[in-house]
Design goal:
Elements lengths: L6 H5 L6 H5 L3 H12 L17 H28 L16 E4 L3 E4 L2 E4 L3 H16 L11 H11 L4 E3 L3 E5 L5 E5 L2 H14 L9
Antiparallel strand pairs: 1-6, 2-3, 4-5, 5-6
């Protein structure tokens, strides 16, 4: 059975993330990554040879990883921005506002609410990483990122409002979720990232 991710399937959906892109074979990644995320970071490009194991090469590799980390996380926040529906007035095609609305965050049935995994999970994780980085804090571990905490909250079936240090999330039976940002300074920093990737999006500051 071939478990290799299918390029056509990924490119036909909004599931593309830096993580899923790195799972593709090298010959597919070379065309897929630039299409969705821009230039390929040097640290994920497969070289035709394996460098010798040495202290210098190991330190160089970690330095490249550190330099590319922020860029990869920025691409994640851009992926969140591009995935927003402009059908909601709260979602601006120019910037992040105090609140964003996302579709398909939860599912509701006779047993109550359920968190929907997939691209929304990855986007929440990307959002959580960027908010922490912009606040000067370490990136949360995957086992305790925003998506994991929200999932645990939903499983308790107490109230349909989740809160942490950075966001308040309200979710509804139709499946949508309202993400309200608590830190306007971090929203401004995210919009600076948006402006770098889409220079015509935000007006110049005066």
């Amino acid at each position: 059975m071939n478990n290799t991710p299918n390029l056509q399937t990924l490119s036909d959906t909004e599931n593309a993330t830096p993580l899923t892109a790195t799972l593709l074979p090298d010959e597919q990644r070379s065309s897929f990554w630039p299409q969705h995320f821009g230039a390929i970071p040097q640290w994920i490009t497969l070289e035709p040879y394996i460098p010798a194991v040495s202290e210098e090469n190991i330190l160089s590799t970690f330095e490249q990883l550190h330099q590319s980390k922020t860029e990869v996380f920025e691409r994640g926040i851009i992926n969140v921005f591009k995935g927003l529906s402009w059908d909601y007035k709260s979602n601006s095609p120019c910037k992040f506002g105090k609140k964003i609305i996302v579709d398909g965050l939860v599912q509701y049935d006779r047993w109550g609410f359920h968190f929907r995994h997939g691209r929304r999970r990855e986007q929440l994780a990307d959002l959580d990483r960027m908010l922490n980085l912009l606040d000067g804090k370490p990136v949360p571990e995957n086992r305790n990122d925003l998506s994991v905490r929200l999932d645990a909250h939903i499983c308790k079936q107490h109230v349909s409002v989740f809160e942490d240090e950075y966001v308040e999330i309200r979710y509804f039976q139709k499946g949508s979720g309202h993400i309200i940002f608590k830190r306007s300074d971090l929203v401004e920093k995210m919009n600076e990232i948006v402006a770098r990737y889409f220079p015509a999006t935000l007006p110049p500051r005066t």
